[in-house]
Amino acid sequence: MKKANKISVRGIVQGVGFRPFIYRLAREHGLTGTAGNNSNGVEIEIEGNPVSIQSFIRSIKESPPPLALIDAIESSDAEVKEYSDFTIIQSKENDERFTLISPDVTVCNDCLRELFDPGDKRYRYPFINCTNCGPRFTIIRDIPYDRPNTTMSAFRMCEACSREYNDPENRRFLAQPNACPDCGPALSLFDNRRKSVATNDPISLAVTLLSDGNVVAIKGLGGYHLACDALNEEAVSGLRSRKHRIEKPFAVMIPDLSWLDKIAAPSGEEIRFLNVKERPIVLMKRRKNSPVATAVAPNNNFLGIMLPYTPIHHLLLREAGRPLVMTSGNISDEPIAYTDEDAFDRLAGIADYFLTHDRNIHIRCDDSVGFVPEGKPVMLRRSRGYVPYPIPIDHHAEKAVLAVGGHLKNTFCLVQNKYAFLSHHIGDLENYETLRSLTDGVEYFKKLLTLTPGVVAYDMHPDYLSTRYALESDIPVKIPVQHHHAHIVSCMTEYGLDREVIGVAFDGTGYGSDGNIWGGEFIIATPADFRRFAHIAYFPLPGGETAIREPFRTGAALLFSVFGIEFGNLDLDLVKRIRAMHPDLLSLIPKMISQKINTPLTSAAGRLFDGVAALCGIRDKVNYEAQAAIEFQMCADESITNTYLYDLHRERTITQVRLDTMIGEIVKDLLEGKSASYISGAFHNTMASLIGEISESIREETGIGRVVLSGGVFQNELLVRKSITDLRRRKFDVYTHSKVPPNDGGLSLGQAVVAMHRVEK
Ligand SMILES: [Zn+2]
Ligand SMILES: [Zn+2]
């Protein structure tokens, strides 16, 4: 007996290959009918055998296309219309009120098979793609997402490609970037004076050049990489000095998983994360005596590893047969180069050769980075592969909100309806180039999402470029959001938490409501408000920004706060090193502190880590953000069970955590000859038990049993692990980041959600 159903699917089901998916599913089940887009999602009429219809609906629920996000499926009986087959109804343009732009998608297995099949017409074709894979976000100039609105408009599909594109049965049906060697983009090779290098096989020649120790700039999906042989110490060191990147680790791309065990010691979950379709760089413990050059990640126990994700990478890596360094195509911390002009301009002094092509990149998009502490993947940078896929929020925004993020690791966020669109990685807003990347990015997203923000959220720091940009914008409602409140709410949003939580926000720098630099904060937070319950007692940062680059200053300040001016007489290596730098420094630092000369006060846990690291002789000056703290973590002896003492001091409604006793004990340990490893182990234990103890006192007062951990310090895998263990032992529900970075890359999401709730209040 024949039956008919009308099915409406709501959620993100447009622009994600949903209708072709429905088409194939209906065919598989022997059903007939239609599928079309409307303003809410996809509307399906289906008829045939009732058992098949049930199984059809189950399949939609259980195995939708990878990028679809289904909010609801409603099905009701309908009249049998005797359709003879299944067809897709083409949508009228103004029907598509809400279209999702897909992130760039890793080359799929079907395309890979063709790529390496000598009989296939796309054999070794570096731009192979299909409905399920290929470039998206980085080639789209405007909506609707059709070929003329992408950077593929320059290429006219040949007859064979058009046939695939128009055939609902073909796996390249409606694949906008579809191309083949006859009609699509092509690779070319240049030297660093932009002279073309004649070859009919740019891939093979690039591999030879890499094997000879050259640095090759390679045009990827969202920008240029700088590549060299990861096993060649000299090549890697050369790249480092040319790029002016002193010790900050480089990422490595491996040909396939068989290389993993040779260079790292991965867990099962890490391997799974490495393999996800977004292909992030995953930080993993490196194997001792691995063949990877030490210059790839000096003084670091971790290695950033990724798998090939474009056909170009697959071709290169398979032929090279060894790991390649693949680091962003930029000098130091500038934005990554993505136009050919800019790449030749800025990278000519670094790269010996350029492997490039004629498909333009419309918007830059850096590689994503993550790691797996406590068995669960955590994003450290959410960008290529993830953006602009939205983060669902448990709340319907009445007005579209723009949040402009912070200063470092900037991202912005647009919230519309029930979705938060967190942007690609913009970078540190230290220069005009990066600020422009932010402002252009915002305009681009507004266009893609067809929205006009009515509210703008920004950090309370008056001097941030992002703050000025927000204040100068013509968006009518402007809402400042405190830095650490935004951190905690960004994590709450991941879990849909909207009732009060205990928020532990540990980071390096964030402007506090009292004008001091916060960052060791225990707050009671809802999405709209927060109250500061406790914080690490303020300590001075002699030299301000300089102290961040020179942690010995913070180390000296910690000593001065405990021992007074006598600290200069302590028989400590740090004191000797400071004296050796300049004899006057030992009296100058106390003077700066006492007279408050360029010496802000801070409660930042990140700065405390820096200072203690300097005290232990880890590092007096850093070459990249948080280097001292990272190396201090790396050296920790995890078998140590000791903790140091601290004092809790209640002043009116706020508890201050005083660390004088701990600093005194650390000095005693140093004088007794205890190692940095020992002290680091005990220090991490102390921080974890501090988090547990203060959370418990908040619970006693308020009854709140949920603890949210956020802020850049929670990129410290050891601290995360120890804190979670301690909190669970005390029977707390613990929430840590996963989809959104704990560092300032996640800030804009929190800002947007706070603003949304404030507006409604
Ligand atoms: Zn494919
Ligand atoms: Zn073609």
Task: Write a structural description.
33% of the residues lie in helices and 22% in strands. It has 761 residues and is α/β, with parallel strands linked by helices. A 10-stranded mixed sheet has the order 6-13-7-8-12-9-11-10-14-15, with helices on both faces. A 7-stranded mixed sheet has the order 25-26-22-21-20-27-28, with helices on both faces. A 5-stranded mixed sheet has the order 4-1-3-2-5, covered by helices on one side. Helix 15 packs across helix 17 (585-594) and helix 18 crosses helix 19. The longest helix has 27 residues, at 676-702. The radius of gyration is 28 Å and the shape is globular. The protein starts with a strand and ends with a helix. Bound molecules: zinc ion (2 copies).
Write the layout of secondary structure elements.
Elements: E1 3-12, H1 18-28, E2 32-38, E3 41-48, H2 50-62, E4 69-78, E5 86-88, H3 109-115, H4 159-166, E6 187-191, H5 202-211, E7 216-219, E8 224-229, H6 233-243, E9 251-253, H7 260-263, H8 268-274, E10 281-285, E11 302-306, H9 311-320, E12 324-328, H10 340-347, E13 353-357, E14 369-371, E15 378-381, E16 391-403, E17 413-422, H11 432-448, E18 455-459, H12 465-472, E19 477-481, H13 483-495, E20 501-511, E21 517-525, E22 530-536, E23 539-540, H14 545-549, H15 552-563, H16 573-581, H17 585-594, E24 601-602, H18 605-615, H19 627-634, E25 647-651, E26 654-658, H20 660-671, H21 676-702, E27 706-710, H22 717-729, E28 733-735, H23 747-760
Parallel strand pairs: 2-5, 7-13, 9-11, 10-14, 16-18, 18-19, 20-27, 22-26, 27-28
Antiparallel strand pairs: 1-3, 1-4, 2-3, 6-13, 7-8, 8-12, 9-12, 10-11, 14-15, 16-17, 20-21, 21-22, 23-24, 25-26
Helix pairs in contact: 5-9, 13-23, 15-17, 15-18, 15-20, 18-19, 21-22
